[in-house]
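User:
Note these tokens:
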Amino acid sequence: MYRDRENGWVFGVCAGIADQFNLNLGMVRVIAVVSLLLFFWLTAAVYLGMTLLVREKPLRYSGTRNEYDFWRLHRRDEWRHP
């Protein structure tokens, strides 16, 4: 499990939970806010604990080598709009 700072608002804890369990991110955020309103200290402690203990999601290059070569070989001027 990782914290997803790229898709997260504060520290990426909710985004990491949604990604790990394949849940809707909005639903996880709503549950977190409702939990924060009902059980403030417990929710705040769990959130801060996860922020400190769970590592941040590593960045990965998602393209392929062929795509990289394609963009590298084409001149920039060919892609400009008139």
